[in-house]
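Q: For a teaching session next week I want to show students how multiple molecules come together into a single three-dimensional assembly. I've collected the sequence lines for a complex. Could you give me the predicted structure tokens for the whole thing so I can convert them for display?
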Amino acid sequence: MARLADRQAFERYAAEAQARWERLWAGDHWVISVGISECSIAKGALETYRHLELLLAQEGIPATLRRVGCAGWCFAEPFVEVRAPGAPPVVYGNVTTDRVPDLVHALKRGEVKGEWALGARADEPFAGVQPLSQHPFLARQRRLLFADAGVIDPESIDDYIARGGYRAFLKALFEMTPDEVVAEVKASNLRGRGGAGFPAGIKWESGRRTQAWPKYVVVNSHEGEPNVFKDRRLLETNPHLVLEGLLIGCYALETPYGYNYIGGEHALAVERFQEAVRQAYELGLLGDNILGTSFSCHIRVRTGGGAYICGEGSALMYAIMGQRGQPRTKPPRSVEEGLWKRPTVLNNTETFASVPSIVLNGGAWYASLGTEQSTGTKLVTIQGPVKRLGVAEIEMGMTMRELIFEVFGGMREGYRFKGVQTGGVSAGPLREDQLDVPVDFDSLTELGGMLGSGGFVVFDESVCAVDFARYLMAFNRYESCSKCNPCRLGNPALVEILDRIRHGYGRPEDLDIIREGSKHIIELSLCGLGQVAPMPLLGMMKAFPEEFDAHIREKRCPANVCPISEAVLAIVGDD
Amino acid sequence: MANRIDRDERIDLTPLLEVLANRFRPRDDQEAYELIVGACQEAQRLYGWVPPEAAQAIADHLGVTINRVYGLLTFYADFRTEPPGKHFLWLCHGAACYVMGSSRLIELLRDRHQLVDHGVSLDGELTLHVFNGCLGVCDLAPVIQVDHHEYWGRLTPERLEAAIEALKRGDRLEDADGTAG
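A: Of course. Below is the structure for the complete assembly, covering every listed component.
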């Protein structure tokens, strides 16, 4: 493949890619797509793919077999999308290897396996199968970043271009000045999706104002929190979208140096993003003098070694620089002095992925989505015993109740809702009576929760609030980088007190000690991890005071989880 | 554990040197520093851990000090500086797995197999790594990734026990990901 020399060459290439895409979907032959992503591989998607390949050949169905990315419905993996000649594509869920023969035989007979179908990609019901867009998981979603998830092959730049990819980058490159790009991002009021919610446009603007050279643009795909998996799904399912956002970021900052820092454990995300970068180089969308302009851009992919703290901005930069990932005091902020002591603009994966649609449709259009203070869409993941587990993309402002009980289907059989932990390990939980809060940056914070990176953990009656608080605190203890004392010594102390309570030796004054100690950690810690580390514990104490009381005063664990109840059981057993 | 460190077998560095020569070619000092972690990850992929010889080879190749390499190896949780057991259990202890009961699995491994985080079982068969982040396959929670490719999902202590038995026998576990029921 030759490098594309200029804009016309790209337009020709895009037209060809689009024509190929349309021929594929002309409707006169079989097209069968299997979703291959980390979560579906875990559930046997590769075996499903191999079985399909074999059986289709045996049965003489001349199908084009494709690999696509994940579409967010973890609960239905592995999924297979079948387009029979003359029929709309039908998506089947949970197609494990044992279901493949039945499915292929049904297809051979020209039937639709209605009971396994998630939906048909059509506006009207087809052969008793409802339109996919009306599936309860998808009906309330608004998909911008995940629009092509499960539709395009993540390892094919042609698929991405055929669906309108790299248009935003071309628009920025040929029709806009860097200042105009920044102005659009600012107008969109896009706030950082990593958790802090700092407006991306303002960050980019201060990055532009700084005079030092060179500058760097960094994507933070570290995602080391214990409760979220949206960034890696995005990278697995549409890596070019993130790459395009990063390219636009580099153009806006007028710098040729872009980085993507990806958590080392997200192997498939790393692999697919690297492949995307390779393809973009091959096509001339990366490299020197892109499409005949004076703009050059080089992207380096760096992987993390499994330290949560490296998601913090300054720690991440030290990690890229080959040092131990420990944060430093600010100021200077990283837009003034970041990577290699040069101005660095760092944003979350999802933030960058939102940029192409902003450039393409304008900041005002993006600002019209969501709520006034939290614009746009948000990728959210819900974990725990809910019926439809996965990644959803919603407009900001949907209530937590709608999110949990409509999009994610509510609790599984036999589980009763007790609470939902928000903001990962950095905030408190919500109780049932607080669920009518809108999911956006500010409303959740008012209730002691946090939007964070959009990972929510639903838990049921079998989870003890004290034990859960201990789990979250133990995470922060383990992941503390040990640079500053309040965090390094304070968190273990809190875990110790909690362990005392869990074992039945809690004293009423322990709660005051926790509050006092937490105050020190929050006020004196150096970085964001320490400053919010005690928040989940304080949140649990606020939301479930009666459980802490039961442990301390009545020496019992209502959920029968803590060691305190084992001791009681042992005594009863001796009788 | 001590006898595992005084090992007789020598590490064959050829594959690592090949990877380093082909894919780790820094153009300047900055890039050399940036590549250390990636090179260590390659070494761990090849050997299952980062042996001292490999760490030295990486330091020599990239022109950095061995202290720098060990500074990173001991900071980042993913790296092992001691040889692992025959099978590698990567136990997800993310919030989803915790809510679904991963603590009970950790207790079982500790009490019945004397296996703790980053440890090797006495028979040298199993290595455990408790992963604090999220493996991202929450539908299977609580979940363990085995030897980097297979998943045991929706585990209970009983199923984990059966899975370990099967693994030691060299069998595959029926319905390993736990989705059939």
